[in-house]
Amino acid sequence: xxxxxxxxxxxxxxxxxxxxxxxxxxxxxxxxxxxxxxxxxxxxxxxxxxxxxxxxxxxxxxxxxxxxxxxxxxxxxxxxxxxxxxxxxxxxxxxxxxxxxxxxxxxxxxxxxxxxxxxxxxxxxxxxxxxxxxxxxxxxxxxxxxxxxxxxxxxxxxxxxxxxxxxxxxxxxxxxxxxxxxxxxxxxxxxxxxxxxxx
Length: 199
Known about the structure:
The protein has helices spanning about 5-25, 35-50, 55-65, 70-75, 75-90, 95-120, 135-145, 150-165, 180-195; strands spanning about 170, 175. It has about 200 residues and is mainly α.
């Protein structure tokens, strides 16, 4: 059993809370894609400003939830890519698939990390620093929750595919793509392809 740092626990819980709030806002039509785009734009601008000027409220929040590496490179990186991933699947796929993809994003990634830290024993053949227990358990749990929007035969393959791609460090011109972008897109594409070519 590996200890979970207080910072990582707070980050993973916040990730799930943000995901749940996003789902509620979209389900009840409280927010529109245009509004979410402007939130994304504001987040990027504030992140860039923060690198030069430490805005007090934002500074307090980031110091308590952000990794040191991200504070130096791209403050609020996880939030920015979570919003971007949410917006992309919302625009690219039917609403039920988008909601299921956002659900998988909200729960699979943090649960994979937390479960893997506590129960993980078997190293992945893809990345020896990661285990397989966390991703498999997270895929199953997030798929069960995603059944609020799609059948299990769509949710589970989508969650499993997302966790598989999460194990792979995908880079484009030496820039590593963020999990918060990869996971919902992989989930959405998987469900779309199953409906298009299998069902």
